[in-house]
Amino acid sequence: MGRIKFVLILCAVGAMALALGATALAGDTRIIQIDNDFSDWSGAVALATDPSSDVAGGEADFTQVFVADDNERLYFRFDTTREFVLLESNPVIAGNDLRIFIDGDGSAATGMLIDGVGVDLEIRVGSRSAFYYSGGTTNVSLNEVGFVGLPTHTGFDFEVQVPFSITPGFGAPVSVITGPTVNIFIREDGGGD
Q: CA 60, 10, 128: angle at the middle one, nearest 5?
């Protein structure tokens, strides 16, 4: 596909925001092993940085977000000041309402229009679910998306992998990342960044 330009759209949820506006960066091509060892991110440039402690207690406060790809998968790394379990939504046991929104063709005319972005894939990490938006809404599992994220225990820093293609209903693969520009936004709907 060639080089992808990532546009990280940072949007407010209530009064809290990582930042407002968009940050564009030519894609960082590298293969990331999702293994909870962040050394393969060495030299990567953060798509966004944010001061710590600018979010009210108990919510996710993202301090850095990194994005890379290997022409088959997107990789995300994000650092936060709140310890939580990545794949858990119950706040009693350090859950989260983290959502990753991917506009794989850079077009607001396709997908589900969310905050001005044509979202093709919404991943609700804590609840272990996802939605594929293409001519309707298809509820897909994280397995169908090919989502991999670590650590699986509580942590402050996380790395995630999402393939360019998903398999809704475990049928034929469907390409989600198709354009030279990929719009991404990440937020915790519980009130954090």
A: 50
Give the tokens for residue 164.
Answer: 């360019």
At 23, the amino acid letter reads: T
Strand partners, 174: 166
Which residues make beta-bridge pairs with 100?
Answer: 123, 186
Cis preceding-peptide flag for 151 (omega within 30 of 0): yes
C-alpha radius of gyration, the chain, whole number: 15
Secondary structure letter of residue 81 according to DSSP: E
pLDDT tens digits, one per residue of 23-69: 445 567 888 999 999 999 998 888 777 766 655 555 567 788 888 88
Rounded Cα–Cα distance for residues 10 and 23 (Å):
8
Indicate whether this model's pTM tops 0.90. Answer: no
